[in-house]
Structure formats: C-alpha cells, structure tokens
Amino acid sequence: xxxxxxxxxxxxxxxxxxxxxxxxxxxxxxxxxxxxxxxxxxxxxxxxxxxxxxxxxxxxxxxxxxxxxxxxxxxxxxxxxxxxxxxxxxxxxxxxxxxxxxxxxxxxxxxxxxxxxxxxxxxxxxxxxxxxxxxxxxxxxxxxxxxxxxxxxxxxxxxxxxxxxxxxxxxxxxxxxxxxxxxxxxxxxxxxxxxxxxxxxxxxxxxxxxxxxxxxxxxxxxxxxxxxxxxxxxxxxxxxxxxxxxxxxxxxxxxxxxxxxxxxxxxxxxxxxxxxxxxxxxxxxxxxxxxxxxxxxxxxxxxxxxxxxxxxxxxxxxxxxxxxxxxxxxxxxxxxxxxxxxxxxxxxxxxxxxxxxxxxxxxxxxxxxxxxxxxxxxxxxxxxxxxxxxxxxxxxxxxxxxxxxxxxxxxxxxxxxxxxxxxxxxxxxxxxxxxxxxxxxxxxxxxxxxxxxxxxxxxxxxxxxxxxxxxxxxxxxxxxxxxxxxxxxxxxxxxxxxxxxxxxxxxxxxxxxxxxxxxxxxxxxxxxxxxxxxxxxxxxxxxxxxxxxxxxxxxxxxxxxxxxxxxxxxxxxxxxxxxxxxxxxxxxxxxxxxxxxxxxxxxxxxxxxxxxxxxxxxxxxxxxxxxxxxxxxxxxxxxxxxxxxxxxxxxxxxxxxxxxxxxxxxxxxxxxxxxxxxxxxxxxxxxxxxxxxxxxxxxxxxxxxxxxxxxxxxxxxxxxxxxxxxxxxxxxxxxxxxxxxxxxxxxxxxxxxxxxxxxxxxxxxxxxxxxxxxxxxxxxxxxxxxxxxxxxxxxxxxxxxxxxxxxxxxxxxxxxxxxxxxxxxxxxxxxxxxxxxxxxxxxxxxxxxxxxxxxxxxxxxxxxxxxxxxxxxxxxxxxxxxxxxxxxxxxxxxxxxxxxxxxxxxxxxxxxxxxxxxxxxxxxxxxxxxxxxxxxxxxxxxxxxxxxx
Length: 949
Description:
The chain is an alpha+beta fold and about 950 residues long.
C-alpha cells in the first residue's frame, strides 16, 4: 500500500497508460489485466491503464462505478494514497485515541476515513476560518496539512473519474449525510399517554432499523469495490489462535490500533500488510467470504470431491471447495457434477439411479426391472447363496451400452441421444409439413443450435427416454436371462413355500439372506390372535429347503463316535427325511432314535445327552423367526423363541382372541342353562378361520362366566375350576358346612401356625371340593352330565371330608414333632427347606390326592433321620448327595420345559414324589414305601422315560 501511495503522489497525474504501473499491480489486482504470459490487456485492463494511478486503486474505482459508490470510494482511495491524517504523539497517545473514537466504525477501519472526511466537511460548511479549522484538527489530533493534501488528491482523482466517464460531477463529490431526526407518528394526537409512550418506542425502533438497513447496504457496496483491489490481503481467523491465515500461506495479526483488534472477526480484508516484529494487517474491515468469489471469479480455484448420486435431488452432485491463493474461501457446497465431469457423472448416475435403483423414477422399464430383480433376489434369499443374480457390473454394462455419452437439447426443449437424431427429426417434420426449400434450409441449421447436456440427472434422463422409446419402447427392459447366472431350478415353491399352513389358516413367510441381521432366515408373520395356538416343536422343522442344513448342523454338534454313524451325512439326512418323522414333534428325539436304529444298537440312545444336544446354539437362521402383528398389521413383537413371545403377549393374545366373540360367551352363569358345550367351535375373524374352545371360568369378582379360549389346555384348566364353582352354588348347604372347618381343623391350624388360618381353611375347602366334586371324573359339558356329577359329589363329599381331616391331623402332629426336635441340629437348615417345599401355603390343593396319606410319613422320615444322623454323618451326606443329583436333573428338566413353553407330563410331575419315597427308603427304611425305590432304580427310570422327554 505504501507503493500505492508513492505512485499516486509521484506520478503528478501525468503518467497515463504507464505500463510499469500496470505490471506492478498485475499479481495483486483482481482486474482481468493479463490474458496470457505476454500481458495482453483485456477491456477492463485497458480502462485501468488509462488511469494514472496504482492499478489497485484503478481497479477499485472501476468497481465503484459498478457498485454505485464512487463518491465514497474516491474519499477512501485518496486517503489510502497519503499518510494517515490522524496523529498519535507519544506524549498524548491516550488523549489521541480517545479523540479518534468519534470517527471509529466497529466493522471497518475504511469507514473511519469517511467519518473523518464527513466531520471535516461539516466544519468547513459552517464557514470556519482556516485558523479555526486548524484548531479543530488539533482538538481531534488530525494533521491539517495532510487533510489539505487529502482533499487535493481527492479533487484530482474525482476530476480524472469525471473525465473518463466513471462518474458525473454530482456523484463524484461526497456530501456529508444529513442526520434524519425521529418524526413522531401522525396518529399520536388521539392516543392516551400510555399509548403515546408505546408508539414512541415503536417509532424509535423503526428509525434505528431504517438507519441500520441503509448503513448495511452501503457497507456491502463500498467493501465489495475495495475488495477488487485488495483481494490479496484477505484473511481468515485461525481456529486455534488470534492470528489470521492469508493468501499463499501467509499468517498475520490485526494491528493493535485497529477498531477490530478486540473483536477479531472471522474474515477480514486489509489495506496493507506491514512487517515489523511480526506481520500486521492495517486498515482492516469485516467481509463475507462469498464476496471474494463474486468479485474475483478468475482468481479463485475450484476443487471437487466426494461425487455421489443424490436421490432426493435426483442428480449426481459433488462437494465443491473454493480457494484463493491456497486460502479456503468456501469449504464445501453441493454442485451438479455433470457440468464438471460429464463422463464420470454419467457413470455415477447409472450406478446409483439405475443399478442400485436409488431413484423415484415412474417409468415402465424401471418398475419392470425392479420387480424382476426383487424376484431373483428372493431366490437368493431362499437358497442362501448369492449365485443367482448377476453382479452390479453386468447391470452397469447393460445400461452403459444403451445410454448415450451425451444428450442434445433442441430449440423446442426436446432431448436426443445424438446431434443427428435431433437434426433428422427437424428435417422430417419440415418435409411432412410440406415446407418449401427455405424452410428446409432453416431446419438444416438446427444442428448448430443443439446444446449438449450431460446425462447425470433424472429430469434429463426422462426427457431423453421419452424420445428414445419412440423407436424402441423396450430399450431398457431387462429379461430374466440378463439377470440370472443359472436357472435355479432347485428353488421351488414346494421347498420354499410362501405360506405356513396350520389349522387356523395360512401365514405369510418371507426370506432373507443377511447373516447377523435380525430377519436373517425365514420369518413368519403371525396375528396376535393365534400366538398361543402355535406349537413350538412344529416350528423346529422350518421349511423343506432349509431343513437339511439344520439337520446337518445338528449332526455336526454330536460327539465324533456318534457322528461316524451318520456318514455320509447327506445320504443319512435323506434317509431320515424319507422315514416320515412326525413334524409336530421335536426333531432331536426323533433324530437320536433314528441314529440308534441306523446303528442297530438302541443302547446308543443312552450315550446321546439330548438336553446338552438341544442346548447347542445353531446359527440364527436355523430357527424360525416370528413377527407378531395386531389386527391393523402393526408389529407388536418379534423373535425366534416362541415361549418368550407367549410369556410376553400370551395374555394379550387370549384377550384379543375373544374380541367380537360375544355370541359364544355369557356372563354371570348361576345354573347349567348354557346347553351343551362343544369341544371346539370354528369362527371367522376377517379372512381367518379360527378354532376356539369353550369353558366355564371363575372371574376375579367370584362370578362364573362362559368364555372362549384360544387353546384347549387353557379351556380345560379354567373349565375345571368353573364347574367346581358352579357346583358350589348347587350345593350351598354342604359348602357352608365345609367352610366352618373340617374336624380337627382348629388344632391342626395351631400346629401349622406358619400358615394363616383363613388361608389354610380356604385351601383345604378347595382341595375337598376338587376331590369330591370332580376327582378323576371327566368334566361335564352338558346339563345331564352336570346333574349326575352333583349326585356323585353329594355322595362322595362326607368320605372325602373325613379322609382329609384324618390326613391333616396326622400331618400336623408329625410336623409338630419334627419342628420340636430341629433346634440347633446340623440338619436343621436342610430339613426346613424340605418343609417349605412340602407344607408351604397352598399345599393342600397342590398335593395330589394319592400323596395325602404319605405326607405324615415324609415328615416322620425326617424325624427318624434326625435321630440317626449322629451315628454316621458321612453316610447321611452321601445319601443326600445322591438325592440332590436326582432332584437337580428333575429341576433342570422342568425348568427347560417351562422355558420352552412345553407342558410338564403327569409322569414327570410324579417323579418328584418318587424322590420323596426315596428319602423314606434311605433315611427311614422301617416306615416302608408303597413300591420298591432306590437310587439305581430311579436313575434307570429317568434314563428310560424322562431324560429325553
């Protein structure tokens, strides 16, 4: 900038068109001065050369004309060409700084020059004498000599601008702006005081907004013009410091005297960069980075990265970065990539929009191809092999062969695949219309008017397709041969059905080959209403096309000596499937039996630990995935473990199953006036044919109701309790007498004091009613059977009541004797745990009737065990260990069945009581058992009947 000042002063305004001046500013000016290495001047460069000033200033003046701010720029340009008129004497630096504050602008040091000029001009306009002006300058620490030099230089520049036609005389000389006073609103006269105050505040706010808007508009115009000459002095604040990064990697700081020193805006422009102890920027202003590109487009460089297909915009876009001399002006913005690299953009368009189908094309070929690819992809999902559908490169080659490199747009907006296509149509139309030679000649010139366009967006593609399909409507239609690598004859609907067929209808199956995805494998969509009716073992068999792999993985999980029997595995699996296994039962027991049978030695069954085998985790796709939906099709839950879904949604499923089935149900049943109850009924629910089961049920309020259940097991369980409650209503006197308590109840309740007396009474009453009213009889399902059951109940009730009374008193007495001897005995803790199992609250209804006579024996056996313990504690511990092993096997088995949602058989439930008899045999043999028991016998019984159940 100092060079700028010297040139202006030293030229004497006579060095017009001096080439040295032009070349001096060639590197830094944003004017289009040189078009090649020989510096051939452009039109703008010629205008600058005619100005006898620094090329930077010349460029700024030319830009001022464009932005209509010549008066302001002439003031600032002349100020930049002289020494700063502000004085800062060392002995009065603070006073000078304070005096200069009235001229400061918070955003721009350049505007401070305008403020000084305007203030000085206002004083001159007052008619002050020269002495008074000198005094005013001293007051504000301004040099009067420099002010005069400034005005003279300004006058010379203004005259030059007027002579060159850059500005009129009126526009070249700046007049100090008048300060508009706030004008009160015209409607204030009719308002009260509060309204007037409010209106005054609004007027002030509006006035300030108007001043601010005018200032901002002028600010941008002035600084855009300045930027054209000072383009090399822009800088961006460093994110990790107070310095600025400038052009060509330079780094500078704001000069401390600048009004922007403390604010440190993100982007600044400086009049000059001066190096002292460090590089400083002097006379700086805030700018917007967008102005750099707009004012110096020929100096910025464009860099493109991350080109990709954008489905939402429907075109290939890339990120564009704009730099000026290595300084990033705009870090990233999306631009159409077709104009930048048409060939590469076309390839990305084909791969994204057509091959990957990431577009919203509404065309016949696209819908056809999408459907065909989906069908073939389904084959891959079913076969779990990606060897059917051709790869993306084959699809790309298909489209690449048929799409033109560029398309051509004619005068009417038509898009053609070649120049000749558009030209030929123009000629053809001209001939069909009977045009004369002159018209035909005009059409022939149409070729020159065709405009090439890149094929990189949906709009251009659709326009081209519209013309291309006139000659070949199926140009882009794929065929199965184009898409399939082989025929995939093994993937049939029989092997991979679309629906799962059950008694309740058919449910949709979907396939997916994507390991580790939640939907990998086969998924069945099931309405909530039939959730409880699904049978876990039947789901193990998947679909025929996936079953062989599952069985192969199961065989692989076996020990090697057993696995040898199954070699060769594919043939063994074929024989197993040809043996017609029961597909409603679990796979593992049947497969284990078939392995033993194939080996000709059924003892192999004992070597196969089916529980451990079943616990082996197979890949997720080897288990049927369930998707549970409501009536509206919304997904409620999903997973591969049926028992967990039934625990989570089982109750909701039962309630939903009963919706809209009021025709089958009835509330408040007090007598058997409900006719005959069928074992099951079928009814329609939407498009489904469902099977329901009727039964009586005791409601929460104690009333009896006829309800429809979704499973036979739930209906049977509820119906037994419902029949008992209904019989109580018919046998009111007997039940009333029973509720008073059976014989010996008071004494027994005192002995069994760990159970609340009322809880014990209700429990005993229910146990008597269950045995006397139903026992082991078949549940009545019509009025005749119900009445006969009442007769039997009347006759059985006294005997059952008397028997239970006797059993209760014996049990209570044995408990009291045992409890009195526990004390601090070593077995106290162990035996108390046994008592909690046998005589916990609710034991009366939980204990099978056949085991009631044995309850006192079990308690006496514990007492005898206490007495014998001291003679041989180690023997007691060894026998207890044997029993614990049996109990652990039983508990693990029952837990496993419950976890899988499977019922516990009567035999497995009875095995628990066999273990109780074993305790009697081992610890109190003199009490005898109803049948022979030993550890060996029970282990054999477990191996033969229950281990693989």
